[in-house]
Amino acid sequence: xxxxxxxxxxxxxxxxxxxxxxxxxxxxxxxxxxxxxxxxxxxxxxxxxxxxxxxxxxxxxxxxxxxxxxxxxxxxxxxxxxxxxxxxxxxxxxxxxxxxxxxxxxxxxxxxxxxxxxxxxxxxxxxxxxxxxxxxxxxxxxxxxxxxxxxxxxxxxxxxxxxxxxxxxxxxxxxxxxxxxxxxxxxxxxxxxxxxxxxxxxxxxxxxxxxxxxxxxxxxxxxxxxxxxxxxxxxxxxxxxxxxxxxxxxxxxxxxxxxxxxxxxxxxxxxxxxxxxxxxxxxxxxxxxxxxxxxxxxxxxxxxxxxxxxxxxxxxxxxxxxxxxxxxxxxxxxxxxxxxxxxxxxxxxxxxxxxxxxxxxxxxxxxxxxxxxxxxxxxxxxxxxxxxxxxxxxxxxxxxxxxxxxxxxxxxxxxxxxxxxxxxxxxxxxxxxxxxxxxxxxxxxxxxxxxxxxxxxxxxxxxxxxxxxxxxxxxxxxxxxxxxxxxxxxxxxxxxxxxxxxxxxxxxxxxxxxxxxxxxxxxxxxxxxxxxxxxxxxxxxxxxxxxxxxxxxxxxxxxxxxxxxxxxxxxxxxxxxxxxxxxxxxxxxxxxxxxxxxxxxxxxxxxxxxxxxxxxxxxxxxxxxxxxxxxxxxxxxxxxxxxxxxxxxxxxxxxxxxxxxxxxxxxxxxxxxxxxxxxxxxxxxxxxxxxxxxxxxxxxxxx
Length: 703
Hints:
This protein is an alpha+beta fold. The protein has helices spanning 3-29, 40-59, 63-87, 90-93, 97-120, 127-155, 162-189, 194-197, 200-215, 228-257, 262-280, 284-298, 305-316, 326-335, 378-383, 389-394, 407-410, 444-507, 511-537, 551-561, 582-599, 630-635, 652-662, 689-702; strands at 343-348, 354-360, 387-388, 415-423, 426-434, 547-550, 568-572, 577-580, 606-613, 616-623, 666-672, 676-684. It has 5 domains: 3-224, Rhopdopsin 7-helix transmembrane proteins (Up-down Bundle), CATH 1.20.1070; 240-298; 305-470, GAF domain (Beta-Lactamase, 2-Layer Sandwich); 471-537; 547-702, Histidine kinase-like ATPase, C-terminal domain (Heat Shock Protein 90, 2-Layer Sandwich). The strands form 3 sheets. A 5-stranded antiparallel beta sheet has the order 2-1-5-4-3.
């Protein structure tokens, strides 16, 4: 089948479908003429005539019959327009209406006469071309006049009458606008465009749909509300279509003016244009710009709140083994709103300051151990203020005088916004967003949506923290129940060893045997008693007593413990006195050094140092091992019964932190995966003991 035959088949199918739709609607409206007032009868008649025109076009029964059918269609729809003008009385006040209608009717009748006369003279050379040009020109005059009348019909109508005229005017505008383009192309191309004419039936079907909507009782509620996704995809397709049309047009023009190298120039242009399209069209920046333009000009609100809420729920509630940790999902759920490529989650640390809890798609930013100082958080907790860092950098922020932003955020231009997460007037965290591909200023709609999402995210974090605390409490209870039996058995064994030692003192015959036995039994007894003491402290973090001790002696004892391991290196030591429990502090440092050795390669050193910082002695244990992620440090390192070692109890780091707290100090951790870890133990100087005692007694009096 030829191309012409294919388009003829498509046109016939669409014309027949349009005729059926028009006739069906006319029959349905026969008993409902009152829905269009005085124009009801004329509309039904116009539908029947238009259906007959579709049948004439589909049957291709002759040029004269088709021309008569189309002229009849135009004439009766002009009469419908006049009756619609009469429905609100404007036909008496708009004097030009009747002359315009009469002029268009005269043009149609003249067209029929000229067309009939020229069809009789087709034997004359060149007369076919003249007949075609006359036919096209007359059709263009009528379609342009019809579109002008349709525009005045709707645009000049009173506001209360427009709902009744909206859909009939739209249908007629589509019908005549299609004809206008069809006859314009025919006039310019000097031939009948069969591939375009094949879709005239589709225009008739659109007219049918519009008249049907106008006849519906609930027509006022029928409004086109495309979703943002459909609008964006449709607009994208239109952009691509216009691009392809422009590319073909330019290529065709190059083929005309290119001379001998026309083909080469045309292919080179198509190749270059295609390469540019492949680079530009998939761009996230271009997609972001299109979404902003569409949201600004096509929708009352920027966001599709239903879609945003569904996406937020899917992201934050995504579970399973392959799901991201909760902290990263929190960042992602907020970042997706603005198409931000990454972000950070900061949550309160032990002293109330914000520390890094999770990062999502932002590995290169350096975050200090104290990401946000405690003194700067009260403003965010009190107001829930969402900070635009660009405004803070330029001093344009409304509350700029009340906001303290750390330098590491201001100096990083990728840092874009701070979103506080407030739950029951308590700051549970803060999200830092990275700059989007298409950055813009925030407005009231952004702030409202972010506040709602921030509150919801804060509730998730609080609920998760409560669940973890409850689970930890349950595990502690189980641990204490189990350890009670262990302690009971060990106590019995220690009592038996002690009794054996006393009996050996009385009954051993050989002095050498007696001495060795006594030493062995006594050491065993001491070790068991020490084990019982340590087990008794699990969960309480208690130490036997605090006393003034030389800090350098503690470091020396730890180095003596690892004297056979060349990996352990004492970097710096200060001769200062501290208030601590020597046995507990040594236990903490030995545990940290041992962990550093296990995490580092065999030839990588583990440094231990002692310096002074303010009122504290600062013990540092630094290794260059595998390091730990922020999520592991935040959520797993100090959690009891969580261990990465095979057969480990998972309470070493937890016990170390509790022992340091019992000595009125603190344990900080800085770690990066692949770089290593730094454990910092702060213990009060002996000179500061009186200060801490004064503060403690004051707190007890206040309580």
